[in-house]
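Ticket #4471: complex job returned nothing on first submit. Input attached below:
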Amino acid sequence: MHFAFPPRKTSNPPPYAVRPSRSTPMLRRNQLRLLAIIALGLLSFIFIASRLFRSSSGSAQSEYIPPGTPPVVIVTVLDPKGNPSFNEMVKQNREHYAEKHGYTTFFPNPADYPLKTAPVSWAKVPAMRHAMTLFPHSTWYFFLDVHALIANPSISIEEHITAPARIEELEIVDVPVVPPDSVIKTYALKGDKVDLIICQDHEGIGRESFLIRRGEWAKYFLDAWFDPLYRAYNFQKAELHALEHIVQWHGTMLAKLVLVPQRIINSFHSDRAGVSEANIYQEGDFIINFTGCDQGGKTCETVMRQYAT
Amino acid sequence: MSLSRSPSPQRGGGWSSPGLTAPYNSSGHGGRGGSAAGSGRTSPVPAFANGANVTWATAQARSAEVLRGGGRGDGSRTRGGGFLGGHWRRISIGLPQWRSGGGGIGAQHFAEKEKLGRGRWNIGGGGVSGGGGARGKVMQILAFFGRAIWRMRLRLAIVLGILLLVLGFYVTPLHRLYRRSSYLGGGSKYVIILGANQGGGVMEWKGPREWAIERDSVKNKKKYARKWGYELEIVDMSTKKRYAHEWRESWEKVDTIRNTMRKYPNAEWFWWLDLNTFIMEPSYSLQAHIFNNLGENTYRDINVYNPLNISHPLTEEYLDPETRSTVGDGDPSSINLIVPQDCGGFNLGSFFVRRSAWTDRLFDIWWDPVGYEQKHMQWEHKEQDALESMYRNQPWVRPHVAFAPQRRINSFPIGACSDNGPDPNIHYQEQDRDFVVNMAGCEWGRDCWGEMYHFRQLSNRLNRNPWEKFKDWISDGIQAARNRGKEDKKS
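Support reply: We reran it on our side without changes. The output follows.
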């Protein structure tokens, strides 16, 4: 129907708003196409990016260390059946020192560990592992034999020993790891890669005083050292020879170990037989070691009491 | 064709109707009015046979247009739609016309002497031709599809192009490149280490069967590694006097893997395979089969299956909570060793190790002279027993070891571990399409080559492509029919 003029608008408006016509789509064709292209591009970008960055996501984050964590734990295995006043003297020596520097102490009982028939001296190995369980955020764990005392409490372990620059200064490179003539020689290590700080005397690697850094390597080292096959092997000097064995046979052990001069962590008391002059305690040294003090009719307590603070 | 106003009479006769006074309107009527009318086009002036509505002005305009188009030849404005348009029109006029939708005789504008639908291709079908009805329907449907395809030609072209690209990806070595690259498919992050020549060399001469086993096994792994872009390292395990002492003889697995790790510094996972293994399903990628979902495909709590009765978890109080936990830290990314267990404990015929500091340490401590000296008489499986011993006694090992359900990477044939009869957790199951078969212990009184051959044939049969399946179906059918015939003759 065609009219000469368009019809008038109706006088009765519809009660509801007119629905928008369905014939015109919400989005025009070219708009849709643009959207599709953008979506496709985005998807492919995400796909490729996820492929590219998939492997690199597992980087180690720096772990959270709660405030107030002692940076160093001093571990000494006490014999609960020993002389109580002697034990008390040793304990006080450690505690006094730890308090001064914000460290902490740990005095485990060897009966807590499954040593079976092995000599009691093996207890130091699980004791170190135990310290890492009890103080899971500390950095260094310092084992000190019960027959040794901290002679100079003003020395801080970080400055004196464990600062990376200090380690590099102290480390003794390219000497036989087991004296006198092992073919296995120590490596030159970067200070922050070191996990075990130990010294060496005329008898072998020092088992009376050493420091371990917490980490996966420490677990490996201690657990491998404590393997029942070594405990059952009847090494002449028990855990000392086991330690000498593993550092000579296994490169991953040696690669984390540095030797430091004896007097840095383990000066000998002058009574000890067979000790070279250079390793004997001098005024101001950090540690004094009395191993063998109970020979010759003396008791360790009387000898050590002079040095105990 | 709606008009804004109604047409009105003009002085010179005729009607002025602005939308319809196009010049071709009248020409169409003049030239071939019959066919135009036949195509059903409605025209406002059907009654005027010959230019009744031609005014002087329109005629002049038309002749000018014709002159312009014919004289210059470019004809960009002629009504045919361009220079080519003219030609196109001439061609299309020359073509035969299909009369569509003819409504019976009444619609014809010329006399039809023949009977309709005979000797003629009549698409419309029409009411008269009764016999050609079915064919007409088919043609109609075909024409409908043709039109639909033509209308969607752009979209179809895109789909076809994508299809061609996909085909090109898989037919050419492009897909291998993709799968191999470390950042896309990730294939070069996996190295398969195949220990060939085990215990051979100086000690033992190889016979034809041993050669055949080696050839088949190597071919199988080569094909698999090539398909998925993995690295394959075939190592010679023949007994050599490599060490000053004879202690480490046949303990070379560890040394071999370490050497391989050095050779492929960018690879992450290393898969050890004994020679007596066969990859039954080459279509499984390691990523899809195991590593994309490592936590689901392995278990870390040995209590799930514990043939050695190892007490787990550790309970000693001096150990840290992670070591005492049944599953380590529970995060699949801390898994560094994946070992299957068979009825006798750990099985190192098919296992995975990942490059890590932990693995370096494990490989370093794995062989130790003190352990060897005490245990070499008892440890008849050498590395395997040493690993079990470390797992038992060295707590640091446990949080990084995961176990694979045996049939995931190391199915046994029925001859191995068969003391308690067939076990669905141990032995190969055809209907589940197990990944790898390890003919463990076949050299002790079983037929290695026979088993290898059997599993090779089975794998080939299970992985036929559809065309081969079709051919086999036909030949099997013929065979069956023949057999039936023979039996009939016999009976």
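Chain A has one domain: 70-305. Closing as resolved unless it happens again.
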